[in-house]
Specification:
The strands form four sheets. This protein has a five-stranded mixed β-sheet with strand order 4-3-5-12-6, covered by helices on one side. Strands 10-7-11 form a three-stranded antiparallel β-sheet. Strands 1-2 form a two-stranded antiparallel sheet. It is 41% helix and 19% strand. The N and C termini lie far apart (53 Å). Helix 1 packs across helix 4, helix 2 packs across helix 3 and helix 5 packs across helix 9. With 293 residues, the chain is α+β, with helices and mostly antiparallel strands. The chain has three domains: 79 residues, Arc Repressor Mutant, subunit A (Orthogonal Bundle), CATH 1.10.10.10; 102 residues, D-Maltodextrin-Binding Protein, domain 2, CATH 3.40.190; 94 residues, D-Maltodextrin-Binding Protein, domain 2. Strand 1 and strand 2 form a beta hairpin. It has nine helices and twelve strands. The protein is elongated and about 80 Å long.
Length: 293
Amino acid sequence: MVNQDGLREFVAVVERGGFTAAAATLDVSTSFVSRQVKRLENRLNIRLLHRTTRAVRLTEMGRVYYERSREILDRLEALESDMADLQERPKGLVRITAPGLYAQRYVAPALAEFTAKYPEVSIELDTRMGVVDIVTEGFDLAVRMSALADSSLIARRVASRRVLICGSPAYFARHGKPKEPDNLRSHNCLTLPDMPWRFAFPDAIRVVKVRGSWTSDNGRALVAAAVRGTGLIRFATYYVDEELSRGELVPVLERFEVKDAATWIIYPDRHHLPTRVRFLIDFLVERLEAQQS
């Protein structure tokens, strides 16, 4: 039988960057972690870590052992989760990131419904607008407005969405309406950081570089500025539906609207997702698709 003593402690030291941080994570003493790792090295007759007064580093053999150990612990967690699954009792913490208003309007209500159904699941919801590195920051999944080309992640399409260029009647009265996407170069465009303005041309989808007097990571701030005639914005309809219905904003360039805009659920490529994460992904796909249909 394989002796697993020291395995969790070793992995925690590597992932937390030291013995003290690992001990805090595992809720044990630093000396206990140190003893367990030392016993593991003695049992294997391998040096796994280079220790200094400031930090610990993996040896070459330690790196190989860590990767295999991480796989083993993932499988054990999946097994424990599957046992809960047999009793239909997903439990534990799920860390999720979703952007701003979308999180508020769609994701949060779905999460509340999910935890009412599975009360042993707890949620940590991050609503930053920027793209979060879910692997580095330890998130179980992300809801994003685009699927990134990252081979280490799985992207599951949830629902299509419309993205419009809008401006106020007052703005168009002063500056006229753009007839072609290239006309936007002479307009004041209010932008989110790192958010390209994409358009469907007859031959291909192209990005038009725009400029303007406002940039913000808060979409509602840009909507408020656009309503007051400051400039043009590019947003999904859920951001501007109320302003459109009241006539405070007017869409333009609709014939160049891209048809591939969608909402995606992103999660790490693991052989076995924890039951709570797998249940939540399926639940969110169903609810978010229904809400946006």
